[in-house]
Structure formats: structure tokens, C-alpha cells
């Protein structure tokens, strides 16, 4: 049992490490591909050489980032099988489909055209090359769509049912799976977060050039395109984040209480915990700073909704565990005799709570002998680790509003043509680059740590999902991944910084190019 | 015939198509990577060789990713059991593969010779190792893998890591890298000139002949080693539950399907025909034909394994009754149906734009062309 717990902990650590690492590169790919498409569109429409230089320069950085996204994505595609085999068997009938479709519909598109985008400049007409860049942007965002359809199933399993004859969840409705509100909101939220990441990235680097008065033609225009793009993205990411919070609040109340540090059920109007020090053991906040009235409309999108707190959710979970135990017993009978009528009937009645019975199996291998204490313990597990989820959520939100403010300023300065004079702003801008990355990682933590103790919410507990490896194997693979990925990031950062310092290949600009550093050149945007 | 049986058979065939696509397209690039230091003696030549596949390796690699995803979707029990059972081997495969995108993308970004030599080594490793592991995995499937399930389908692998590199599996691995080198040679002949093209032709010839020898040895070995026979349970239309059947190990049983349907001998025949005709074409300068004949040889190789094992996919050597077969390791009919619809729509589309991409980038790559191309690797 001790060994099992260690293997689970190591498997979770490895998955979190590889996923968080992969997710450092993905949002930038999502956003930069769309930004490249935007810049190249301007180039094709206006015919101005500087926009081609911009597109080519940013696509170099895109390629350096993309290589690592692809490399680390390879790991993800197989890690469910290598490390989460019970999970993979349990939901493969549903979860595998969006992953495969992602390959077919999206990743093929993105990867085939990325080669043409990088190498086809001299072989394709302007229009065709633009089309290729569009396909890369479309492919990478379609990728995100299908991956998030798969992820949304883990958060909010819809369109499926457990089949005792095969001991797994099976697909009932593909359309329900695809049109899951969770999936749709997650997709837009994540894609737009990628746009935001790319915008801040481009702004930061452009500001770096402007401060040094280098590559001004490229820098000023890149800055403006990215600032405008980023303002819309940051508004979008906040709106969709709110929608996603609302949807999660309904589907995953246990995640919601962790995000908000809410222990007691809150009648309207409930206060919003701006900061708090949650104590999971005592199920209370040792300290909390509240804004009154705000939480109810924020979470329920109404003024009279009630938000169930963690304590009441634990009581509900106890009921469901007790109800699920007969289902687990019946299932074991069915494994010997699939046609046992009594067991089938029992399973039909209690099957919905099978996952809850599996929660208590962690403490009571024979669930019929589970003590009230063990049931309470399992029920308390249904509240995810409140502190980390609560704080990650706040980091993400703070970062989002910080970026929104920053981008509004950037857009105003840029449109007024004052940006090259705002030295302080330009000095801060490169330091903003880590902010979206931190927000992305924090968002992942809210979504996935907030899903605990389940791999599939309400259906399959994490503790039973992993492959049955030895501790030795797990240490070996974890150390290997950390070592390889550390080397990777060092090489990537080294090249990234080197190519940023080198800057775009300005080449001879057409003589008609207006002086970009001069104030009052706002007309350039309209010219473009 | 019941629709579920048809779907299972179609997806068995599509699994073959996927593996062939993976072996041909990814194998080609890996063959180029593994043969890089032979094909190019100077850095200029090596850059030339790399740039022949530079625009395509990424798209081709999706066959590998799609392979993972499609097995997950259509054969989830295989995905869960094989990849966790072969854990350390999978790690070797993944770790060697994930350095490849960096090898391509980062190698020529700096002029330092030491930097480039280092990435050449990673390109060699990430070309040779995955193809050997790919072949060795096939070999282990033929031998059977030590695994079993609990009643609730939690799987346990009880063998050692070293046992997966048994002599038979290693031979299969070498056969696989040999065919990959053949395919890589054909690709470099297509787009190369002069001395590079000559070396590629030699590589193709040697690798092709080596592959035939290894294929013959592996074939004789299969004839002598125990195969698996389904003796009860496992209804073709039944649910995907692999725990309710009986299986026997019988020496030479992998030849039963060939004995029952002698026409099937044509499938391994494709390997000999493809490689021999391919070498002949390559030596006459018809490298495009040689490339397609190499693809045919891959189809024959993977087809031979599939034909020999049918209906088995992953036999269990320690608990044969828990072996995974076409009848009891698939997804539900609903999932197989949806996936078939997506595949039928998108594989032709993928084929069209992949062909277009190769057509756009057609033409010879020489040391001179890459000197003048600022976008080259």
C-alpha cells in the first residue's frame, strides 16, 4: 500500500512536470501563429517589405519555440498509456478519440504547413505563402480545441456511461462530448490566453529594440500590432475565464470551493475572499480579507444564488460513498458472472456512485468493511488542496488584470505615436514577458489540481489510475525527464536570447519608408 | 456479418495502414538521420542532406503521434497495456525521439563545429534508436509479453526490462532500421546530386540487402518459435473484455494462417519483391520508383506480422488467456464508427496537402542552393 502511494505520487509529479513544461511552449505557439498570420496579411495587402521582415523575424523565434512544443508534446501523447494505464483503459473509449482526431485534423495540418511556412518563402507566391501561414495558425488552434475537448471530459464527463461488461466508460454521444460547455469555454479561454502570451512576448522584445534604437521599423510596427491584438485577447481571456468559472462552478462545485476558499455554505450575498489562509485540516480560513456582496453574482451570475461550501460537500460525498459501495460489490460479482441478474440490478441502481466507492477503497480494501471514519476520510478527500488552488487562482487573475492594464497603456501610447518616448514603459515591458507564462501555469494548476482527487471527475479516483510500476522505474523516468528537459530549456533559452539579440534581418528598406521614430506617425497604421 | 465485427476488422486494417505510414514516413527521416554521417562527409554536405527533409520531417512525424492517438482511440486496451508494460523501452523511444526536433531546428543555428557535431550525434541516436525499438516492439509482440490483468482490468507487467531486448527482438529491430536506411537512401537519391546521390545509392543497396537477410532469419525463427492459438471464448462480436477466453501456445502456430490461405504467402513476398526491384531501380537511377518499392516492402513487412498473428495483437506469454486480440481489445462500436468517419474524411485530405507540400519543395538540394537560401537549416 505504501509503495502504491509512492508510485502514485511520483506518477503525478512526473505528469505535472511534463505537462507544465509542455505548456510553457504551447500558448506561445497558439498566439504567435495567429500574430504571424496577422502580420503577413498586412504584408500581402499593403505590399510593404517591412511586414515581410517582421513575419520572417518572428517566425524564426516561432520555430525555436515550436521545436520544443513538438518535442515535449510527443511525451504527452504517450504518457497516458505509459503512466496511467488504468485510466487509459477506463476512459480510452472516449478520451482517445479527441486525441486521435487532433492528430488527423489539426496536428498534420500544422506540422505539414509549418515546414512550408519556414522554408517556402522563395518557392511560393505571396498569396499561397499567406495561405500556408493561415493553415499553421488554424492547425495549432484546432489542436488546442481537440486537446481541450479531451481535457474537458476529465473535468466534466458527459456523453458516456460505464459498461460493466467491459469494465470501462463507453461513449454514448460524441456530440455531447464535443459540445460540452466545459470544452467550448476551455478552448476559447486557452486559445485566447495563448494570443495574450504572444502579444506580451512580441511587445516585450519590440520594446527591448526600441530602447536601444535598433530595428525601429520592425519594432514599432510589431509593438502596435501586438498591443491591439493583446488588448482584445486580455478582455477575451477575462470574459471567458468568468464563463469557465461559472460552468465549472456548476459541474465541479468542489473545485469552486477550493478556488474561493469557501468552507461554509454561503447564502446570498456572499463575500469574495481577496486573500485568505486556508486550513484544510480544520476546514476553515485562519485569516481572510473579504469584499462583501461580490462572490454571489461572480459565481452564480445572479443575486440570490446559494453557493455550497466545502463542509456540506463533504457530507454529500459521504452519502454518495455509502450509496456506491453496493455498486462496487456488484461489479466484482459481475466480473465472475457477467449475467448475474441481481448484481446487474444492484449496479443499475447504484452505478452512478461507483467512483465514490472507489475513493474509500483506498483506505478500506474491502469496501463492505469500511468504517465511518474511513468514509469520512474519503469524503474529505473530495475537496482538492485548497491553499494551492486558491492561490494559483489569485495569481492567474492578478496577472490577467495586470496585463490588461499594461496592454491598454501600450495601445494608447502606440496609437498616439508616443511609445518611443515612454522610456520607463519600454524598460518595464521586457519584464512583463514572464507574466503570461506564470498565469498560464497557474491556470493549469487551478484546472488540474482543482480536479483532484479524481482523474475523471466523480468517476475514477487518481489513486487507482496509474500504471502498476515499481518505485524504481518511476524514479528512473522522473529523473530522466527532469534531466533532459532541463538541458532542453537551457539550450532553448540560449538560442532564443541569441536570436533576439541578433534581431531581425533589416536589409535595405525601400527609401519611401517614413521615419518611424518620429512622433505623430499614427497614420502608418491606416496606411498599413 | 455484424457491424461491430466489420468495424473491428476495418480498424485492424487501419492499424496496419497507420504503422505502414509511420514506418515509411518517419522511418525515411530517421534513416536519413541515422545515415547522416555516412551520406555527408563535410558539414556542407551534411547540411545539404538535412535540408532535403527539413521542410517535411515535422509533418511526417505526425504519423507517429497519430499512431499513439489512434491506438488510444481504437485499441485503448492495447494503448494502456503495451505502453505501460514496455515502460523502459517506451522511455528509450521517447527520449531518443524528443531530441530530434531540436536536432533539426537547432543544429545549423550556430556556426560552431562542436555544436553541430553534437547535434549530428543526437540526429544519429534519434534516427537509429527509435527504429530499432519500433522493430523490437514488433518482435516482442510476436513472442508474447509477460502481462496479466486483475478482475477490474488493472494490468501488471511481470517481466524485466532487459528481457525485451532478447535476440529475436533485436534482430527485428535491426531489420527495421535497415529498411529505414533503405527508405532514407531513396529519399536522399531523389533530392541529392553527385557524390551524395552515389553514397545514398550505396546505402540503399547495402541496407536493402541487409534487410532481406534479417527478414529471412526472423521468418525462420518465427517458424520455430511458439505461436498462439485461440481455442475458446472471444466471440468476434463480443464486448471488449479479454479475460474470458482460452489460448494455447503451439510451436509454429504463427504459420497457421499462411497454411490455411496459401495466397497470403504473397504478403511476405512483397518484401523480397519490393527490396530487390527497388535496388535494381535505384541503380538505374529511378530513385522515385525505388522509394515507392521501399514503401511496398514496409507494407509487406508489417502485413506479414499482422497476417501471422491475426487475430492476436498482443499475446500474453505468462497468462495466454489474457492475450489481447482483435475481438476483445477494441473500442466500442460507437467510437470505432465515429473514428472511421473522421479517418475517411481526413486521411485523403492529409494525403492531398502532404503531396502538395512535397511538390512545392521538389527539386534538387545541393550545397550551392543552401548557401543562397537564408531560410535553410
Automatic annotation (TrEMBL), chain A:
**Compartments (UniProt record):** Cell inner membrane
Recorded protein name is Cytochrome BD oxidase subunit I
Q: Which UniProt keywords apply?
A: Cell inner membrane, Cell membrane, Electron transport, Heme, Iron, Membrane, Metal-binding, Transmembrane, Transmembrane helix, Transport
> Which species?
Salinisphaera orenii YIM 95161
* GO BP: aerobic electron transport chain
Matching entries from PANTHER family are given as:
CYTOCHROME BD-I UBIQUINOL OXIDASE SUBUNIT 1, CYTOCHROME D UBIQUINOL OXIDASE
Which InterPro entries does UniProt cross-reference here?
Cyt-d_ubiquinol_oxidase_su_1 (IPR002585)
A Pfam family matched in the record: Cyt_bd_oxida_I
Q: What topology does the record note for this protein and the membrane?
A: Multi-pass membrane protein
Give the residue spans that cross the bilayer.
20-45, 57-74, 94-119, 131-154, 187-211, 223-247, 391-413, 425-447, 471-495
Return the similarity comment: Belongs to the cytochrome ubiquinol oxidase subunit 1 family.
GO MF, one term, reads:
heme binding
Automatic annotation (TrEMBL), chain B:
| Gene Ontology CC terms, in alphabetical order | cytochrome complex; plasma membrane
> Where is the signal peptide, in residue numbers?
none
InterPro entries found in the cross-reference section: Cyt-d_oxidase_su2
Tell me, in one coarse class, where this protein mainly resides: membrane
The residues that cross the membrane are 12-39, 85-106, 118-141, 161-182, 203-224, 263-282, 289-313, 333-359
The superkingdom of the source organism is: Bacteria
Per UniProt, the keywords (alphabetical) are: Cell membrane, Electron transport, Heme, Iron, Membrane, Metal-binding, Transmembrane, Transmembrane helix, Transport
A GO biological-process term = aerobic electron transport chain
Sample GO molecular function, one term: electron transfer activity
Give its localization: Cell membrane
The topology of this chain with respect to the membrane is: Multi-pass membrane protein
Q: Which family does it belong to?
A: Belongs to the cytochrome ubiquinol oxidase subunit 2 family.
- Please name the PANTHER family in this protein's record: CYTOCHROME BD-I UBIQUINOL OXIDASE SUBUNIT 2 (PTHR43141:SF5), CYTOCHROME BD2 SUBUNIT II (PTHR43141)
Report the protein name in the record.
Cytochrome BD oxidase subunit II
What species was this sequence derived from? Answer: Salinisphaera orenii YIM 95161
Its organism's taxonomic lineage begins at:
Bacteria, Pseudomonadati, Pseudomonadota, Gammaproteobacteria, Salinisphaerales
